[in-house]
Amino acid sequence: MISQGARVELSPEIPTLAELLRDHGYFTAAADNLGRWFKRGFQRYEGYSWAKAQEPGGGWRKGEAVTETALRVLGEAAAQPQPFFLFLHYWDPHTPYLPPPPFSRMFYGGDERDPENRSMAPVLNCPRFGAYFRRWLDGVTDIEFPKAEYDAATRYMDTCLQHVFQRLEELSLAEETLVLIFADHGEELDEHRMWFDHHGLYDTNLHVPLILRQPGRVPAGRRLAGPVRLLDIFPTVLEALDLAKLGDGLDLQGRSLIPLLKADRPEGTGETLYLTENTWMRKRGLRTPEWKLIVAREPDFHDCPPVELYHLPDDPAEQRNLAEARPEVVAELRGQLFAWVERRCAETGLPDPIEEYGVAMTSIGG
Description:
Layout: H1 17-22, E1 27-31, E2 44-46, H2 62-79, E3 84-88, H3 121-124, H4 130-137, H5 144-170, E4 179-182, E5 188-189, E6 195-197, H6 203-206, E7 210-213, H7 233-240, H8 258-262, E8 273-277, E9 283-287, E10 291-296, E11 307-311, H9 327-348, H10 353-356
Parallel strand pairs: 1-2, 1-3
Antiparallel strand pairs: 4-7, 5-6, 8-9, 9-10, 10-11
Helix pairs in contact: 2-5
């Protein structure tokens, strides 16, 4: 799966982590609102919704709605005798950035509607997404305001999560529970002339938090120096729960991070990452510790070049495209990228999904 908005469902032949743990004695529960195949394997699946404030500056209390359900699910899990696996799906920080007060003014003290400030003009006039931005940013002239609201939404979610951690303490479960915090994507905040959503294969979208806590098993304060993948979560959880053998025969693409975290000098996997985007644009990418290659499969509606190459040690913000200056690197990485695509199609017996199904959506909020 490369987009949860696609029409294709996850094959029932591919077990989810929840299904695997349920079948091996775990009580599984989720606070989630996506439905579809996300529900698979959960014995208790409870959704949520949040009120959308109508008054300007009222904000959306998304995190509190999720926490209310999460605490209820946690209480049910703690009350039964089996070990439990919980999935708590929060939507902050996520476009649109509408944190409630007092968080909404926590990182911004100016006048977001200053008529002399026209920095929001490119955002509100963006042909593909301008109508969406005007729905929640109408009248805003300062582009720094939605950036600050993203930070505010993050602080709001942190506060909501603290209620979950506090409940674990109250239930005397904090010291024996493996906690993972991770995100499925980052956001573009004008770093590449893309705004307040998550499209593009830049590290602003790809580099997301992955935090593990398990007293006695995961060393406190360790940080991997290099990148890892969300694919690594599945085998990491199995090893942390002494269930690594359950992954045998599943052809897992990820690797457990537990040995890396316990190493004397914790480093990332150093692996080459293969990247795919087909939500609003169709692109392929390849990321090594040194280089990032991005290849568009059709004209980019943000007018980005069809081929981009960035030297990450010198340009971690991906601002200097070296594709024309280093054609030999482009050729080498491009060959490696599309050889991988061909190999994966042969291994799975499936067509290339971004060629077969195209983009999942054509606009934000539409």
